[in-house]
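W.,

You were right to be curious about this one. When I first looked at the sequence I had no strong expectations either way, so I just let the prediction run and decided to look at it fresh. Below is the sequence, 125 residues in total, followed by the output.
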Amino acid sequence: MSFSTIHSITFDCTNDPYDLGLFWSELLGRPLADDDKPGDPEALIADPAGGPRLLFVRVPEGKTAKNRIHLDLAPHGRTRDEEVERVVSLGGTVVADHRRPDGGGWVLMSDPEGNEFCVERGELG
């Protein structure tokens, strides 16, 4: 049976891809590629477990609409509330808060370039 696998998830950015890569590197606890440096037209974060890479590529046009696809993140070793605070400290922004009193829900956030992602509830709440 033939099929495709996800090789990379690519993020467009109008600013330095290296800077956006640093945000996601800190967020995910994965390093940028050894040969990435400020000013490069792209930056890369590989998954040591062999999953999809995150690729950050400079484009001339800015974001004009809501993402049609986004990542849902689950924190490990901290609560969702602690993760939201950490994301904000890294330069992320809360776009919408969908947390529910029963502990469910999520927080819609954006990275410094406006790419949206959700922080879900993790194993600690």
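Here's what jumped out at me. The mean pLDDT is 93. And, maybe more interesting for your project: The longest strand covers residues 8-13.

Coffee later to discuss?

I.
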